[in-house]
Amino acid sequence: MADSGVYLDNAATTPPFPEAVAAVARAMESVYGNPSSRHRLGLDAANVVERAREVVARSVGAEGSEIVFTGGGSEANNLALKGAAWAYRRAGRRVVVTAVEHSSVLEPARWLEEMGFEVVVVPVGSDGRAGLDDVLAVVTPETLVVSVMHVNNEVGAIQPVAALGRRLGAVRPTSGRRKGLPLLHVDAVQSLGRLDVDVRALGADLLTVSAHKVHGPKGVGALFVRRGVRLVPLVHGGGHEGGRRSGTENVPGIAGFSAALERMMALGPSEVSRRAADLRRRLVDAVREGWPRVVVNGPAPVGSRTGRTGGGEDAVAPHREDAVAPHIVSLSFPGVPGEVMQQHLQARGVYVSTGSACGSHHRGRASHVLEAMGCPPDVAGSAVRVSFSPLNTADEVERAAGAMVEVARSLAQRRAGP
Fold first, then answer.
1. Which of 223, 249, 267 is the last residue of a domain?
2. 134 and 308 in contact (C-beta within 8 Å)?
3. For the domain that residue 60 is a member of, what is the CATH number?
4. Has residue 93 got a pLDDT over 60?
5. Does 303 lie in the same domain as 236?
6. Which residues make Cβ contacts (< 8 Å) with residue 30, sequence separation at least 6?
7. What domain range includes position 81?
8. Hey, what's the torsion of the CAs at 319, 322, 323, 325, to 10 degrees?
9. 87 and 68 share a domain?
10. Per-residue confidence at 413, pLDDT binned at 50, 70, 90?
11. Which of 63, 88, 259, 298 is least surrounded by CB atoms within 10 angstroms?
12. Both 64 and 206 in a single domain?
């Protein structure tokens, strides 16, 4: 088989596990009934969906009845924000998000603002993390939903979700029109399978996951909806998914999601993170050795040597286990536009991104995440995102690091001229 290159864009999507491919094919070939039909083929399809629902539920510490299958993570995020805001609109009008949320949270929030809701965007620090007190400071008796992602999809920053969940739980009314409010929504698309994701421990009322981020098929995701939480559906007609998401379920996609997630969870989040941390360290060390001017954006991993923008490596990072997810790292090569670096790496068979894949439709715009972190324009504009999966190897990472150094040196020489 020919060398297909080094794929390091797993935060955008992951190559499917063979088990997921087989499950999709099997469902398409032999479980093609409509899961709402009452004959045997329909019941067979319904059984596939329900078994998968239990797999997803176990992976996040939920009950099967609390899982709603959707067409992906973006739809699940939209359903969480819009559905909850409309369902509870008589109890308040405020929605709180952070400045570094995925576009599928920020854009629904902007839409809600146009519909008359008040949206408060919480700033983040230079490490990409929102301060717990900063979030709580804008939570008022008018607040309906607080949406904070678990792991940032561009720099890997882990937000203090569990602590936030505890603090919100302590101040929620237990009776009256605002009983149980505000709700906490967590976008866990980038943390599922890599960190421990437990909806009870996080204090989440709503939590989003996606199949293609855990080596499953595209076009399927799920939203955890805590028992008792009300949502106004985005799609009406048919009453599927307990009336929360109408439309015939994507049985092949759901089967593939289940198969991929079972393998991912069998590997274990701690082992997946341990492997990713080793690859991240190898990559960063090799690039820094060959190109000391590189800037690592976001929180520093435990025990690493870190400096602020500019790359000074004198201080040792504080031992904060909850600061950064190791499978994502953002590297800036000031003076080399991120898109130029990406194109040159692709020519060398190395595949990375310049940020969120969902943001790639807005060419020429700097990352809203890096801007929110206060990165200088030359740092934000020269960033590339590298993201690992359990399928990546140390040899691949060394090859990628070598290519990055080679490109940076080559382009620097061109700028310097003869």
1. 267
2. no
3. 3.40.640.10
4. yes
5. no
6. none
7. 18-267
8. 120
9. yes
10. confident
11. 63
12. yes
277 lies in the same domain as 410: yes
What is the chain's length? 418
Mention every residue, 6+ apart, whose C-beta is less than 8 A from residue 32. Answer: 41, 45, 251
Q: Which of 22, 132, 232, 358 is catalytic?
A: 358
Whether 97 and 126 map to the same domain: the answer is yes
**Whole-number pLDDT of residue 322:** 66
> Is cis: bond before 108, omega within 30 of 0?
no
* Sheet with 67-70, side-by-side order of all strands: 67-70, 221-225, 206-210, 183-187, 143-147, 94-98, 118-122
Is the Cβ–Cβ distance between 253 and 17 less than 8 Å?
no
321 and 224 assigned to the same domain: no
Collapse the DSSP code of 384 into the 3-class scheme (helix H, G, I; strand E, B; otherwise coil) and give the result. strand
In a domain, 411, yes or no: yes
* pTM of this prediction exceeds 0.90: yes
Amino acid sitting at position 16: P
- Gap between the Cα atoms of 29 and 255, Å rounded: 12
- What is the distance between the alpha carbons of residues 172 and 165, in angstroms, rounded to a whole number? 11
**Structure tokens that stand for 374 in this block:** 């206060």
Mapped onto helix, strand or coil, the DSSP state of residue 264 is helix
Q: Is 375 a catalytic residue?
A: no
Phi, psi of 236 (to 5 degrees): -105, 150
Average pLDDT over residues 155-182: 95
**Residue spans of alpha helices (H) in 172-315:** 199-202, 251-267, 269-290
Summarised one tens digit per residue, pLDDT across range 312-348 is: 332 333 334 468 999 999 999 999 999 999 999 999 9
Which residues fall within 8 angstroms of residue 61, CB to CB, at 6 or more apart?
197, 198, 199, 200, 201
Q: Do residues 75 and 234 make contact, with C-beta atoms less than 8 angstroms apart? A: yes
In this structure, the answer to whether residues 262 and 274 fall within a common structural domain is no
**Interval 251-259 mean pLDDT:** 98
